[in-house]
Amino acid sequence: MQLTLALGANLGDRRKTLATARQLIREQIGPEIAATSLHETKAWGHKEQPDFLNQVMVVAIQQPALLQLAAAGKVPQLLHQVLDRTQHIESLLGRQRHEHWGPRTCDIDLIFVGDLRFEDHRISLPHPWWSERDFVGGIIRRELPWLLVP
């Protein structure tokens, strides 16, 4: 199963943070299939903060515990495990959740999980704003257009 993530950072050593985030994602979720180049973008939502460095990353979900959930058809549990892992990575990289859309050392958003459509109190897939954010939709359209082929 293929997972598309949007990564961002606007505090600290942004380049190093994103490189570390990609490494942790590979270790905790699965191998990288593709990644876009890094893009400097203005903040979205709360605009009075430093610019972000953003990247889109595609990985294969291959960690054994995640594969077991997928094989058993336990989609909600799988998605929550993936979200828990990405939020844990954010935390390891210094993310503190003080202000919605505020500055952060690391932000990892789930954009697509294969072609799943899913929504509950924690997750909406595809990500509801992916196409409105140039740092996600624009990057995907320019660098990973194969993701958008039905």
Question: SSE layout and pairings?
Answer:
Layout: E1 2-9, H1 14-28, E2 32-35, E3 39-41, E4 52-60, H2 64-71, H3 75-92, E5 107-113, E6 118-119, E7 124-125, H4 134-143
Antiparallel strand pairs: 1-4, 1-5, 2-4, 3-4, 6-7
Helix pairs in contact: 1-3, 2-3
Q: What would you say this structure looks like, in words?
A:
There is one protein chain. Helix 1 (14-28) runs antiparallel to helix 3 (75-92) and helix 2 runs antiparallel to helix 3. The model has no long low-confidence stretch (mean pLDDT 87). A hairpin with a 4-residue loop joins strand 6 and strand 7 (124-125). Strands 1, 2, 3, 4 and 5 form a five-stranded antiparallel sheet that branches. The chain has helices at 14-28, 64-71, 75-92, 134-143, and strands at residues 2-9, 32-35, 39-41, 52-60, 107-113, 118-119, 124-125. The chain has a single domain, classed as 2-Layer Sandwich (Alpha-Beta Plaits), CATH 3.30.70.560. It starts with a strand and ends in a 7-residue tail after the last helix. The chain has four helices and seven strands; from the N terminus they run E-H-E-E-E-H-H-E-E-E-H. With 150 residues, it is an alpha+beta fold.
